[in-house]
Design a protein that fits this description.
76 residues; mainly alpha; transmembrane helix; transmembrane
Amino acid sequence: MCTFVGSLRRYLSSFQNTFKTLKPMNKIRYIGLAVLIIGLVFQFTMDNDAIDFIPGLLIGLGIGLLLTGKIRTSAS
């Protein structure tokens, strides 16, 4: 049991060090992740064929926000 606790501590400390090196996500990416999850939930719960485009739009918007992290277009 003691070796299990020691290995678990080493694993958790390495896991914690991994998160220290990652850059934090901005608020837009969190919103994108939430919209993506909402779109996926709607995709699997709605049965009406007439409103299938709504989950598709939510999933597309979520992926776009998650990848880019911004809403504005660049002024060129």
